[in-house]
Write the structure tokens for this entry.
Amino acid sequence: MLLRHTPKEIAHREALNINPAKTCQPIGAMYAAFGLHGCLPHSHGSQGCCAYHRSALSRHYKEPIMAATSSFTEGSSVFGGQANLVESIQNIFSIYNPTVIAVHTTCLSETIGDDIPQIISKAKADGKIPNGKFVIHANTPSYSGSHVYGFANMVNGMVQYFSETTQNRKNQINIIPGWVEPGDMREIKRIALEMGIQTILFPDTSGVLDAPQTGKHVFYPKGGVRVDDLKTSGDSIATIALGDTASSPAAKTLDTKNKVPCHIMGLPIGLKATDRFVNALRTIAGVNVPESISDERGMLLDMITDMHSYFYGKKVALFGDPDQLVGLTEFLVTLDMKPIHIVTGTPSKTFEKDIQDILGPDTKANIHLSDTFMLHQLIKNEPVDLLFGNTYGKYIARDEDIPFIRYGFPILDRIGHSYFPTVGYRGGMRLIEQILGALLDRKERDSSEEKFELVL
Amino acid sequence: MLGNNGKIDGFSGINPIESKEELIKIYPAKVARKRAKHITVYDREEGDPPEIEANVRTVPGIITQRGCSYAGCKGVVLGPTRDIVNITHGPIGCGFYSWLTRRNQTRPPSDESENFITYAFSTDMQEKEIIFGGEKKLKQAIQEAYDIFHPKAISIFATCPVGLIGDDIHAVAREMKEKLGINVFAFSCEGYKGVSQSAGHHIANNQLFKHVIGLKNEKNDAKYKINLLGEYNIGGDAFEIERVLEKCGIELVATFSGNSTYEGFANSHVADLNTVMCHRSINYVAEMMEKKYGIPWTKVNFIGAESSAKSLRKIAAYFDNAELKAKVEKVIEEEMKEVEKVRAEVKAKCEGKTAMLFVGGSRAHHYQDLFTEIGMTTVAAGYEFGHRDDYEGRRVLPTIKVDADSRNIEELEVSADEKLYSPRKTEAEIEKMKSKGIDFKEYEGLMSDMAKNSLVIDDISHYETEKLLEIYKPDIFCAGIKEKYAIQKMGIPCKQLHSYDYGGPYAGFKGAINFYKDIDQMVNTKIWKEIKAPWETEPQLSARYGSE
């Protein structure tokens, strides 16, 4: 047993986090920045932060993760990081020539109180920012929120720095996709395009973190939202923000700053959430849903009705980020499965209520803001048939012998998550394939010889 | 033309001086001046290696391989120990990123034995603690860890904000040690200390020396007792070295710190020889143990079959026992049979190919031996966090200037232990051994093994990496996860020498076989030839679809 010291009895803990179900803000800001075309993320802090974030994102995406750091020393920690950041800005534009540098802070630079907008102004005044180039920032103190907040803050920073209002409303909709994979962002764009709707989707890591092998390292791959397009987000007719935690701050800023009305909704994971998303697109844009999209819906529904008996009543534990967990829980309930332990490490005011609303008032489940040590203990107390979570879940799955589906961030030991979406109807189909595969592999493994059949 | 070590002099007519110019051309003048000092061309015929700038600040804004002090302390040195509860005091990120990512394998004696390697412990510091201090929460966290796990030791690792807000983690450790009756000790390894992971290694060494080594005094009657320092059991390396040593009848008292235990550290002073693998990360412990306990240290290298054999012979020579020497020779002979067989097969396919190694503080040197064994030449190499002595050899130690960034890392004053100091060899014996070619307290450095006209680059930047690849087009580049995918996008395979791309072990004899095979697979795969699609290489067909 690799988690042999995890006891079944749950003791109250106030200070010690064990095996977290979250990480810190800056990595989310770094990920979001890759969704801006020609952007180099910059970590304002010690080298280790940047190294850790680049490593984690490299392992998850198996793609180049190019990002710079202010390389704080003890001296800069005492005297402030202004000199380091100004020098960084100058060097980055000279050497790596990005269109945008997206600066995020760390617990170090936040604790000493570096004023990033003031430092950017100084760099600009000193002529360190070439014409047509931009330096944007987000405050991402590691000691509050989680990686999801860092993502949300950087997306918000994009709006604060770039969105513009002109006199001409554009017949386009902003979509803030939330912290989802490049393949998911691609799928969301495809659905809108299929419906004949013009969108500005940001951040957009498709075409950046799923770049093709060409024999050349393209430092700024062709994907990512263009600054010029992002500027027009202030003229869009509406914003659809997918995922309250990751996307609502930017959507609200667009509303107050540019008077673009925002619609905050859940990630389109599974049948019902995708229905709501498609319906929102339809009503906001004033279009009809094309037959092709209805057909996709029908295919997903067909898969569910064909295989429903395999899902019915199966108990599930899941951990991850609130936006994903809400969507996934709803989909599992649609399949008549039973999510009984749901744990996130990311603080969210609405998480518990959202999940309980999906489950219904009479259904009891363990819904916690906690860590995966706690989740493991919950599973020991009430076992499950299936576990969803990031790669770290594999240790729980192995010890408790539970079928396991990798879902969320980070997935360090498998591929596919960045390419094949889990959003939209097609994403739902992929999730069903994964769930059924996991359940049936287990059933086949556990069947006796006389019960083992061609079709189980 | 073959140079020393059978390596090829000059690389396809590329002028290394011009290459160096090319690497730094793009930099602003000030940066170019700084970086120029980190890039050297070594012409061995001109005597001692040239001076290289190392262990100084990375230029801000440069994309660097380097990490931080916390990573070197918690991640590298203490990470592989299985029975200490390592609590990260700080916001959640640092504990999260150092959780299971370094592939430290471990082998507890039973299914019930302590193994905390799979756990990440953190105080998950919040804004409240940043403002009002985190000592209270830290104490509480230690208490909770003790109540749940009852470990024999708990250690605390500081992250950046801890030093800034002034939490006294050492006072907390003392208080909790007294309260709980187990060893509790702390590391002030804030990420901003020093200029790289290297500062963290030093901090880890100091605290292990102060708080753990020598605490236990269990008699060990084995005849040939050694410690292995600076071996972290990535991919099972330590297991392979343990296997070979056991076969030779050499007792391994403690490893710092692959597959290690708290008690192993505590009793490590009973060994009669300290063998040092990674000089950079652990030489401080070796030095201090010599002063306090009288244990001499010598540099070994178990990366490479020839180097492993050489290291075993060195250990046998130290103990100077005919039976041991014979045993070691027998083991080497046995092990080399399979090694030679695979080596010959792989060498036939790899001979003449080129490699570059930019990694760590010893691996960029050690792994050259494995490449040499299969006929491959290292055309450029350098460390991520090495010091001048790791490049030029320890002879330059007296001339190294200590700058402000290194001065803040504590240097312990160590003297002979009143009870436990016992010189294992007299000075005369040591001198006699030296005359027979056994070196003590010596490390020749990476440059001593580089081929003529090769480039040695310290703290290479990403820009320099890409330029090097463009100029030299090596057959393989060795680095880490952050570099891997950019390099491979350029059509050149990248071998991770931190994680071994999840393979290994690569140490010892079986490890050498694994490495030969893995490199063969990487440099000889035909998949890289598929980058161009047929329609990019074949001329447009003249006939048009449906034109018949």
Observations:
- The CA atoms of residues 69 and 199 of chain B lie 5 Å apart.
